[in-house]
Structure to design on (356 residues):
């Protein structure tokens, strides 16, 4: 459940994860898209199967990778360049190890991250991989956007997440008023669930991710000088569950806004239940298949399944903004209404945000 900047959904397909398509078996009589009843039935079946018969994807052979680079115990603006260089070197070593293992796809992904143009605050090539990448001059930024992705975001699909963050950074650079300096962080700091899996329907991965996201937001305060910047969390799909889990712990850390886009629900019934002083925003594209996900929240066989009320629902109480006609993959598409509004939220131009 994640966004792909600049890609369009093909007719008759739903895009799942970073660039994956899932085509329902729809004979000629179904026309362009499956009927709502069929969608709801299939999704409900998947929901039940996730509890009664957990799904398991084919296990990919473990790719050899080096341990993360040794970094200063406490990162500061003065040590950022050293950290960037160490992580790029680590990515280059990971690329060599993946290539020697015969995994050309992972080697290419690692090699791209090893480019001298990349600013990697964190990098770990082990397993599915984790990356925290900086766009812009972080130490001098006065406005920072932190992107939190959803399911199926790994090193192998990271290029699309990078494109989304880059698209936002370009928009911010073009729109920022004089005196406002911006930075964007692509935070792949947790193990995301697979779209077709039991974990994507439960809060387990979000529960594990929340303390790591909170610690990163705290770290940002030490990396911005002379004073802390205003931080906006932009959370997509399963990433909205992560942000909801983290929200109550962010008081006093400079988070001014939390935007939830393409959300399956957050695990709470209202914006007030997030217990945050930040402004809470929500949006859903007109063609986003996430609207068809049953918004249930239940304890089944000792497992919490589903995430409840959609943040765009009036009862949730978020500030709902326009996302245009796009689908689940389109929130960061250049020129889109959703990207324009997300940029306004980051820049603090809240009166300019167009409402849905």
């Amino acid at each position: 459940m994640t966004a792909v900047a600049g890609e369009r959904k093909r007719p008759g397909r739903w895009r799942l994860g970073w660039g994956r398509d899932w085509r329902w078996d729809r004979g000629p009589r179904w026309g362009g898209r499956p009927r709502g009843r069929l969608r709801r039935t299939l999704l409900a079946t998947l929901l039940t199967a996730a509890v009664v018969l957990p799904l398991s994807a084919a296990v990919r052979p473990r790719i050899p990778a080096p341990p993360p680079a040794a970094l200063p115990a406490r990162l500061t603006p003065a040590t950022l360049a050293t950290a960037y260089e160490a992580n790029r070197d680590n990515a280059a070593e990971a690329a060599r190890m993946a290539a020697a293992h015969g995994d050309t796809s992972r080697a290419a992904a690692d090699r791209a991250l090893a480019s001298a143009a990349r600013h990697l605050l964190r990098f770990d090539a082990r397993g599915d991989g984790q990356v925290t990448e900086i766009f812009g001059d972080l130490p001098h930024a006065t406005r920072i956007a932190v992107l939190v992705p959803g399911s199926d975001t790994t090193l192998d699909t990271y290029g699309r997440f990078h494109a989304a963050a880059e698209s936002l950074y370009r928009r911010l650079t073009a729109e920022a008023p004089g005196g406002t300096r911006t930075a964007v962080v692509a935070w792949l700091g947790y193990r995301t669930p697979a779209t077709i899996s039991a974990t994507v329907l439960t809060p387990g991965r979000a529960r594990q991710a929340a303390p790591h996201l909170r610690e990163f937001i705290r770290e940002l305060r030490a990396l911005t000088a002379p004073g802390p910047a205003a931080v906006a969390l932009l959370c997509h799909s399963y990433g909205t569950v992560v942000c909801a889990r983290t929200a109550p712990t962010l008081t006093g850390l400079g988070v001014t806004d939390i935007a939830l886009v393409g959300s399956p629900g957050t695990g709470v019934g209202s914006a007030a239940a997030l217990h945050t002083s930040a402004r809470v925003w929500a949006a859903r594209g007109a063609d986003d298949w996430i609207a068809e996900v049953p918004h249930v929240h239940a304890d089944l066989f000792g497992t919490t399944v589903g995430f409840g009320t959609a943040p765009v629902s009036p009862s949730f109480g978020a500030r709902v903004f326009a996302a245009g006609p796009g689908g689940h993959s389109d929130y960061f598409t250049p020129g889109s209404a959703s990207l324009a509004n997300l940029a306004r939220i980051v820049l603090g131009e809240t009166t300019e945000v167009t409402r849905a």
